[in-house]
Amino acid sequence: MALTGLDIFKQMPKTNCGDCGVPTCLAFAMKLAQGGAELEQCPHVSEEARAVLGEAATPPMRGVTVGMGENAFTVGEETVLFRHDKTFVNPCAIGASVDSGAGDAELDAMAAAAKAAAFERVQQHLACGFVAVRSTADAARFALAAARVGEASGLPLVLVSEDPEHMTAALDAVGTAHPLICAATADNADAMIALAQKHSCPLVIRAAGLAAVSELTEKAAAAGLKDLIIDSSPATSGVALRDQVFARRAALKGKFAALGYPVIAFPGELAKGDEMLEAVFAAVGVAKYASIIVLSGPEAWRMLPLLVLRQNIYTDPQRPMQAESKVYEIGAPGSDSPFFITTNFSLTYFIVSSEIEASKISARLGVVDSEGLSVLTAWAAGKFVPERIAKFVRDSGVAEVLSHRNVIIPGAVAQISGELDEELDGWNVVVGPYEAADIPAFMKARAG
Amino acid sequence: MPYADPVEQLKGRIREVVLGDGEGAVTVGGAAALPFCAFDGELPHRPVIAMEVFDAAPAGWPAALTEALGDVMGDPAAWAKACVEQYGADMVCVQLASTDPNGANASPDDAAATVRSVVDAVSVPVVVYGCGNADKDGEVLKKVAEALSGVRLALGPATEDNYKAITAAALGYGHVVIAETPIDVNMAKQLNILITQMGLDADRIIIDPSTGSVGYGIEYGYTVMERLRLAALVQNDDMTQMPMICNLGKEAWRTKEARAPQDEEPAWGDAHKRGILWEATTAITLALGGADVLIMRHPAAIATVRKAIDGLLSQ
Q1: Mind listing the pLDDT tens digit for each residue in B66-104?
Q2: Contact A430, A406 (CB under 8 A)
Q3: Looking at domain B16-313, which of 3.40.50.1820, 3.40.720.10, 3.30.160.20, 3.20.20.20 is its CATH number?
Q4: How close does chain B come to A246, measured CA to CA in Å?
């Protein structure tokens, strides 16, 4: 059973020395309880306390970082099975693979496409997370290919080979970039574990089924490796889902440390060459517990939906995503185009802007900072009230680009139109439709 | 400590709901485990796909859709036949979009005739969705229910504003009600309670929890569905134990990401594949949330999701 922060605090030295990096013993205990710190960070903890707290204080799922610098990613450290219990912690990394046996031009094109697969959405940067290189020729070629795509893409590398000689060559070339070694198996475990130790790199543990995986992770852990990723070699997507659910349950609910690691998934191997099916299996991994997802290609048509789905699944369910508060131009608005106002709840913004777009009439949409609340909720909470809206309109400078002074407000807050009229001197407040879906009809009617 | 599969047996079970009549009837629901978690408990019926047929030729659809569907788009009966015979749909969903009073405002009699033509054309169960205008849907679905007495359609969306009319029609003429609420566990339960209080058996209700697509609020629908399913299975909460249906085709295909041609958004890549994938990833995510019936639009998205469901059930 998990200990509370106070249970842990009782075992602490209570000196508030700060040597652990946290100012007080109580704060450190609270962090430990939430899985945000490790007991080893306290240099003064007693042996007795260590015995009591040891297992309970270890985060149930290890965080593992791959790569170096600004493009490095961390996965794992998850604490729940369902996102409504608590926000998922580290978004899964989604990347693509290439064969080392491909020609240089193909490697370069793939690296360029991986680098280009980056999108801005709701003030977040969504991008292809890594490049995986599979060894399909000799060891020297593997090393060259890994260095080439790593350099060209600037992305973290996953080195895919079960041959220790190939891995040795590649790590000699790119080992300082902190790549993920993929993979140690029952047959090559000693050599791969030694390589991971030598280069201080994270290591994938691959075996058929979770029982065999947990035996191998225990072996690696006994050798001192902590940064492990697991691959149970599922034969079907159903088995992959089952293993991902079981591994997460075992780690979080059963405190089964041997499976307390992030999972890597290869949906392409389950889809047998069907790239659409592969992407759908990848979507399953996004929702259900895959932490690293290796696709067969980095093209935008598959990266975009998967990265956006990931953004959705990993958002804080308590705190809505917010659109940036500003005036958005939809289409190519002129000085006589309509001017709408709404709130900055991302969903509200998306729906209103897509309905305006659907009308095929250019317009401006002013998004007022309502702290991420939808129109009615924001109004009720005092975040979408005449004073705030008027200030937004004045500060936005939109008046300078408009030849008219009509501001269209959501029909759901028709009751504020009089007061807003008074606040906004010289403006005419127009009440728009109650439902966003009626915006196109409303715009067409106004355009005559 | 050796590893043992952490199987979780659950208390509750989703009700089985039968749609359609005679040899073409299909049972949905029945799950005693979370979606695709057959290792925890029985999943007697796989999620099914109801392919959309519109009552009038839709305008403004992107090329990915119009090129795939082709000539049948103006003929609901031919479209329905194609759904079943060409694309292997488990069910057909008639979208009565043209009954919208703000649009073509087709009459209840016209709508009933359209549904009749679809029911006559196929042997699979038929789902009927009104235009979303509560008053009009009440009138239209009453007429449809009466005209198709006894064929066990699924009629929706019944909302808090029109459930009485739709439930009465389903009671009187032997149909199933789709109870729609706006992404909220308690509102979904409350509407189920109101509908059952009118005398409709609980095994003639399907929950439409409302959903957005990927990028447009899918996380809200997904999470409400997970919570409904956990309430049903873990807490054994009677009024959440209905199968769920997701009207997702329209949500996926209204998004800019599914529609924009590549020359408008070059950084987004191939428009056909992107659109199909937008619908398919939306569908599989909702299936993982607990959808028992997926209402879908594009033949290639349907084929891919069917294969994905096959794969997920291969354990």
Answers
A1: 999 999 999 999 999 999 999 999 999 999 999 999 889
A2: yes
A3: 3.20.20.20
A4: 6
